[in-house]
Amino acid sequence: MPISTSLSDASATVALATLLAPLLRAGDVVALHGELGAGKTFFARAIIHALGGPEEVPSPTFTLVQTYDLAPAPVWHFDLYRLTRPEDAHELGIEDAFAEAISLIEWPERLGALLPAERLDVHLAFGRSENERVVTLSGSPRWEERLKALGLP
């Protein structure tokens, strides 16, 4: 069952990412959906920071992937906006990420059928004000219990 909530500003987005981060473990796929500028990279950075990542978390827009050796598992942050064919993701080592790491994927629709069914979908949309975002979290059955732990309405 999807959970939707309003995030009034950047600090609310960071707070949600900070709640979500401890629920993540190796093999998890977090698919970040939203228009350009909706906050996908910001949300991914907040998760990486919450897991103890470096202060500087560059966007993987040009490299397509950035990796971080963190606990409880490595984090692979993908930005697939420039991916032309789903098969091209194999060159990025995406299968290794799916097996061994936490995968944060911006523009996951570019993967087509390669996007695992077992995943958490995070949809970010613009809210009523400039800084407000509306986030909808939905996941495969394994995610339902974990999402309840967030304590969101």
**CATH superfamily descriptor:** P-loop containing nucleotide triphosphate hydrolases
Number of strands: 7
N-to-C SSE string, H for helix and E for strand: EHEHEEHEEEH
Rg measurement, Å: 14 Å
Can you describe this structure?
The protein is of the alpha/beta class and 153 residues long. The chain has one domain: P-loop containing nucleotide triphosphate hydrolases (Rossmann fold, 3-Layer(aba) Sandwich). The chain has four helices and seven strands, in the order E-H-E-H-E-E-H-E-E-E-H. It has helices at residues 10-20, 40-50, 94-100, 141-148, and strands spanning 3-7, 29-33, 65-68, 75-79, 102-106, 120-126, 133-139. It has a seven-stranded mixed β-sheet with strand order 1-7-6-2-5-4-3, sandwiched between helices. Strand 6 (120-126) and strand 7 form a beta hairpin. Helix 1 (10-20) packs across helix 2 (40-50). The radius of gyration is 14 Å and the shape is globular. The chain starts with a strand and ends in a 5-residue tail after the last helix. The model has no long low-confidence stretch (mean pLDDT 94).
Task: Briefly say what this structure is.
It is built from four helices and seven strands, in the order βαβαββαβββα. By secondary structure, it is an alpha/beta fold.
What is the topology?
Blueprint: E1 3-7, H1 10-20, E2 29-33, H2 40-50, E3 65-68, E4 75-79, H3 94-100, E5 102-106, E6 120-126, E7 133-139, H4 141-148
Parallel strand pairs: 2-5, 2-6, 4-5
Antiparallel strand pairs: 1-7, 3-4, 6-7
Helix pairs in contact: 1-2
